[in-house]
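Here's my example:
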Amino acid sequence: MRLHTAQTACRSSAHRHSPGCFEGYSGGRRGCNVLPDPRRASPPRPRLGAGARRPALQTPAEFQKPEERRLARHCLQQPGRCPRPASGSRIPALGTMDTSRVGVLLSLPVLLQLAAGGGSPKPGALPRGCPTHCHCEPDGRMLLRVDCSDLGLSELPSNLSVFTSYLDLSMNNISRLPPGSLHSLRFLEELRLAGNALTYIPKGAFAGLYSLKVLMLQNNQLRQVPTEALQNLRSLQSLRLDANHISYVPPSCFSGLHSLRHLWLDDNALTEIPVQAFRSLSALQAMTLALNKIHHIPDYAFGNLSSLVVLHLHNNRIHSLGKKCFDGLHSLETLDLNYNNLDDFPTSIRTLSNLKELTLNGASQITEFPDLTGTANLESLTLTGAQISSLPQTVCDQLPNLQVLDLSYNLLEDLPSFSVCQKLQKIDFRHNEIYEIKVDTFQQLLGLRSLNLAWNKIALIHPNAFSTLPSLIKLDLSSNLLSSFPVTGLHGLTHLKLTGNHALQTLISSENFPELKIIEMPYAYQCCAFGMCENIYKIPSQWNKGDNSSADDLHRKDAGMVLVQDEHDLEDFLLDFEEDLKALHSVQCSPSPGPFKPCEHLFGSWLIRIGVWTIAVLAISCNALVISTVFRFPLYISSIKLLIGVIAVMNMLMGVYSTVLATVDAFTFGSFAQHGAWWENGVGCQVIGFLSIFASESSVFLLTLAALERGFSVKCSAKFEMKTPFSSLKAIILLCALMALIIATVPLLGGSEYSASPLCLPLPFGEPTTTGYMVALVLLNSLCFLIMTIAYTKLYCNLEKGDLENIWDCSMVKHIALLLFTNCILYCPVAFLSFSSLLNLTFISPEVIKFILLVIVPLPACLNPLLYILFNPHFKEDLGSLGKQTHPWTRSKHPSLISINSDDVEKQSCDSTQALVTFASASIAYDLPSNSVSSPAYTVTESCHLSSVAFVPCL
């Protein structure tokens, strides 16, 4: 059975191309590897639609000359006297004037039959001799092209016209070719049998095919080359035997193929070179033995192939070559030895005096650059994937005609001077260990057009290293260690790659590269200098380069541009404007700037700028006030106030993040491109990015803990139970902080994702790892909000059952509920943004994303303290107590805790009414640290027996 993909490839290639030389060869089991036709046959004519008229038949070129017309007329009148070829004589191929006359004479009896049968077929009728279901087209006046491919045929079709010049039987199920089955097709020039089930081809299968030039037998089940079936195909020029299972080539199988030019034997199971079989192919010009299992090439393996120009031996198991294995290849110009198991460089290559192209990729055992004496005509040398660490100083003396040098994927550290290689046009040294480019390394290479030095360790390039390269148009220095880049002599560059040089943070002026078309920079900000700015109104500055006019002069010039009096001048002005506009946008620079890689302003819009400044001021001031009031008595702080104070600390860290970003925006206002790369890669960006993630995650965890604590506290108060020890709460708080610390450290371990943008945040788009990180955070935080919601829903359900009167601090319950509601609402846009990035939803504009990240995300940092300050009565009490502490002359002699029996507290109630709670011999559990000790001067009674205590919970 044939693989469907191979069938499709063979079918498409069989219809589009004909075989020939090995340019563009690509191997692969069951692949077609179809190459251009040596005879340059015209492509198949397109099918004609219904009702379309066929063009008039053209007179064959063979009958254009008078002597040809006289010969044809004589044979038509007296066919019995037409000369016939002698037995065993060579029958030339039809198609050229000198070799087609005998074939024309042989065809005259058939021409008589055609003349007796009438003229040309009627339009729309099936041509005579066209098999059923096949597609037939005329090929000139008499010949016919027959396409029977991919029809599921199991045998050769009948009713084939004797005038068939092209027969395509590929991609069928033909398993046998009976002897003499094609003997009448004496005009057949191309036969395609690729992709069938042929396992054996008997003698005489191709008998009578005197004009056959192209034979395709690839993608079959042949175990050996047919012993006698191919003999005496004297006109055959191209033979395809690739992608079979051939393991044996009989010595005499190619006898008589004196015209064979191209031979495919790749993608088979050969283990050795069939030396004897090749001795009869003296006219062979191109051959491939790639993708076999050949392990050794003996001496004189190609001794009689004096006309061979192209030889492919790649993807074998060759580990050794005889010292005279290439003797006799006097015309060889291209040798491909890629991906073998060579132990060392084959010295037999030195005998190939006409060799022009040598490719040797994947020779990992070669540690030294080979001695190429004797290959002075070599124009292209590819030696990659080896272990070469240095080049000899005489490399150019051995190869004076070298034009292409590819030594990528080696271990080169230092480069010699290539100034003697005056014909060099392309150099590829990527993926080496080069650390420096000296002034004379590429000196005076006037013809050099492409230079690839990517993926090295180049940290230093001499300022004049490229000064004498006038023809250089492509330069690749990506992924090196450059901190500066010399521009001298690079005015003709059209392609420049500098991406991956993270230390190269300075801007490069576009004036140094007037011909540049494509450029890749390390940072998007550097593309701002190449016309990638966001403000189109900067175009007029391109016209006034070097003009130091004042602002008034510029305004007068702009007005003068508009007030053009003459229509001629206006037209010229518009043409100049269009040219300048094209010049401005002709450079393709990547990565391109945008809302997250701005050229001028970090924040972009004033709405974001005002929002960030407001959040920064409120978050710092309000959280500082909350922290100072909550922690005024650290020994007597309640558990819920401890949580509120720690949350305020985390919110203050988020305020620090917003403050730093606002400061950076202010200092780089209007010129952020000059500082963007420095800011992204600086320590400051990573620190505040770390603080923002740590603070936001800690706030979510602590808020979850506060919700659970309130629910647990209400339950204990209702059942007169003791609360969880204060030390346990502190341990849980530390655990929450540790979890947030781990989460904030992940981006640093994953390649410093905080430096992915000037916002110093892992963006919810871009790399899959970053998107996965953000989605994981959203899922974790959503789980926390779900837990808080469930806890508070259960709490309020219990309150509705009459437990409210047992709560002494319901103001804190309400405060935590308010925080939960506010933070949950503000987190919804963040969650939606992360999931939309995961689902590749692009309807959200970058400006909206930027607003969410800079304003919505840090907004709880200022709302949380504001809610506590404005709506919680405990803040007023704590603030008043703090005020008394700051004024010693008004402070009481003995500092005390807030009495639960004070007049202020008695005036408060949860529902604007006073609640009266009666405890009979009850042990009142205050929300104090379990290990706290009261001051001797002011004793706190934890268990008191009151007959009736007037107690008001809160608002």
Observations:
- The CA atoms of residues 199 and 222 lie 4 Å apart.
